[in-house]
Amino acid sequence: MAARTLLRRALPSMRSSSSLRQVPFSSSTLLQSRAASSSSSSSAIPDYAIPDPSRPTHFGYETVTEAEKIERVAGVFTSVAESYDRMNDLMSFGWHRIWKDHFVASLNPGFSPLTSGPDPRAPQHILDIAGGTGDIGFRMLHTAHTLNGNPDVRVTISDINPAMLTVGKQRSTLLPASQQAALSFVEANAEDLTKTKPLSSTSTTSETNPHTSAIPSNSIDLYTVAFGIRNFSNIPAALREAHRVLKPGGVFACLEFSKVDKHPLFNTLYKSWSFGAIPLIGQLVAGDRDSYQYLVESIERFPSQEAFRDMIVDAGFVVGGDGFEDLTGGVAAIHKGMKPRV
Amino acid sequence: MRPPALSRAAAGASRLLTPRAAWTRPASTTSSSITTLTTTRRAQPNLQPTTASRARAYHASTHPPPPPPFSPTETAILSAAYTHVPTHGFSQTSLALGARSAGYLDISTNLLPDGVFSLIKYHLLTHRELLSSTPLPPTSTLSAKVEHLTFTRLLANAPVLPHLQSALAIMAQPSYIPTSLAELAVLADEILYLAGDVSVDPTWYTKRASLSAIYAASELFMTNDTSAGFRDTRAFLARRLGEAEELGGAVRSVGEWVGFNAKAGVNVLRSWGAPI
To answer: B194 near B134, Cβ under 8 Å?
Structure first.
């Protein structure tokens, strides 16, 4: 209940739930990136990739500043943390589990063939950004430890929101002890991974807990973000930060809602489901319509498969083939990029 | 005094500033108007489509070569992985070992969009492209050249033969069937092009279709061939190509016979006074 009051404060303007007005939106951080990138040199960080709290970005169909978006996204996820997993099942008919299973299986973490001579396997470090309730992180551990028999795989689950992390930490107590030992939870903003702090059991604000540490550059094998990147205030900055922490040869993998434009008929059905039913389910089950209204609007605002692929390339990654894989006709898409060896 | 033709040419030259107007003016047959058009055309901006930026649905030997199918990074990983195929097959293990020897991480194989199928595609593409450097016996018939090229391509499978069946199984997976069939069609086309086939009639299609079928059959035969130097496969291939030629000859003969008789029948009817 306290969380909900917090959200009400964070969402001062209550939108009428049925309004699907399209705010003309030209100055988003996503869209200006293409125009600017051609003129700027490749080594220097372009302006749009430097977080600026006062720059306009979008929050659903509204235009807000980046700082405001961080605050309001925090409000949304603090509000939905406890019902998050149940709601995912209801909204996607349980299908999100298939997507997540496929995502993790296709990445095949921990796969490392043995050859004759000394054990060539290097320990793998997986960073699961926006990993909140641990859906991806736990699957990673299961694939690496159990299926691939490689116990030398560590997973760090990072989220900006301590409420989501707390739910994940509670769920992790059901895992085998060896997997729990390979798991760590940190609270961090994905746009700046130099300031992370471990999740503490007592709720403390960032001012009272001074122990922040940085995720070093070139230290991560696999950076994953599942259904999180569209909530970031500055996606180019987050992509560049991913590029920094990844080892050369390390992989950036993103599972995110995307566009179904290739299948017009299915798209109509999908849109009417997401705009008609999802906020309603949110209201009935989680008692929170606005957070789920934000969810569907933020999906609508997220760039198309091709545009997001270009943003990944712009951040310095190389992609293979198209650079993305559509799931369920494009309702979700997997984007992968590799940090090249220089 | 100025002759009228010259003045018209001058008027045409003044249109250089608005070239479109020169195209739309009514055509006249005087030689000066032709001069006008030629001058104007020279002043036109380049109307040639910028083909470099546009994907073509066809290929011609006079065009610049198409962009390579794999990026340099992908090629580095795949070529290193391919050296492990004789030992480890078309598998994730080969890919990971290849990534390692190319200086990448085990996880870097995620760059390849189709995983193991990318490795199979690499095998197919590289050996198809190697065909163009195959020396051909200079004075031989088209069918002899086709047989030679097809057998050369089959022999390229020899180092990975123990793993060819698993590769074929992966290629037959529903999501990969379109790519596999397209690659087979391109291979048949490549072989016939290199052999010097210049047919521009319906046999262009039938030749390619039958060669595709024969190649696929021979490849299947080869997976169980243990004879020295794949003698049996070569004999199998020669028999199939011979049959195709015989069949093609038979179909042509039947067609000729039917055509001749139909024409003769029409002429007989005409001789009886039928208004045909």
So the answer is: yes
Residue A331 tokens read as 């309702």
What domains can be seen in chain A, in order of their start residue?
Answer: 2-13+23-110+122-202+211-338 (3.40.50.150)
Chain A residues touching B93 at Cβ < 8 A? 113
- Nearest chain A residue to B84, by CA: A115
Residue contact B110–A318, C-beta within 8 A: no
> What letter would DSSP give residue A341?
P
Q: From CA B206, how far away is CA A201, in angstroms rounded? A: 74
Amino acid in the structure at residue B25 = R
Q: Measuring CA to CA, how many Å separate B133 from each of B82, B188, B234? A: 20, 16, 21
Domain residue limits, chain B: 138-256
Q: What is the pTM of this model?
A: 0.76
B106–A322: do the CB atoms touch at under 8 Å? no
Q: Do B118 and A322 touch (CB under 8 A)?
A: no
Q: Two tokens at A132?
A: 């909140």
Concatenated DSSP letters of A38-107: HHS-SSSPPGGGS--TTSEEEETTEEEEHHHHHHHHHHHHHHHGGGHHHHHHHHHTTHHHHHHHHHHHHH
What is the DSSP pairing of strand A324-327 with strand A192-198?
unpaired
pLDDT at position A20 is 40
Distance from CA of A165 to the nearest CA of B (A): 26
φ, ψ for residue A260 (rounded to 5)?
-105, 25
Q: What is the average pLDDT across B266-272? A: 94
> B93 and A113: CB-CB below 8 Å?
yes
Chain B environment of A337 (Cβ under 8 Å): 111
State whether B103 and A338 contact (CB < 8 Å): no
Q: What percent of chain B has pLDDT over 70?
A: 79
Percent of chain A whose pLDDT exceeds 90: 44
- pLDDT, tens digit, 9 for 90 and up, residues B75-124: 999 999 999 999 999 999 999 999 988 989 989 999 998 989 999 999 99
What is the distance in angstroms between the CA of the first residue and the CA of the last residue of chain A? 51
Region B205-233: mean pLDDT is: 93
Give the span between the Cα atoms of A203 and A311, in whole angstroms.
Answer: 36
pLDDT reported for residue A119: 60
Gyration radius (Cα) of chain B, Å: 29
Contact call for B113 and A108, based on CB within 8 A: no
**Reported ipTM:** 0.77
* Interface contacts (A, B; CB < 8 Å): 73
From start to end of chain A, where are the E strands?
A: 56-59, 62-65, 124-129, 153-159, 183-189, 192-198, 220-226, 246-257, 324-327, 332-338
Residues of the binding site of A: 133, 159, 189-190
In angstroms, the CA A326 to CA A147 distance is: 25
Residue A175 to residues A64, A93, B56, B114: CA-CA distances in angstroms? 40, 25, 54, 32
Instruction: Find the radius of gyration of the CA atoms of chain A.
Output: 20
Q: How far is CA A114 from the centre of its chain?
A: 33
Contact indicator for A66, A233 with CB cutoff of 8 Å: yes
Q: How far is A335 from chain B (nearest CA, A)?
A: 10
Residue ranges at the known binding site of A for S-adenosyl-L-methionine: 133, 159, 189-190
Compute the nearest-CA separation of A75 from chain B (Å).
35
Best of A106, A223, A338 to substitute, by most chain B Cβ atoms within 10 angstroms, is A338
- Give residue A55's pLDDT band: very low, low, confident or very high (50, 70, 90): confident
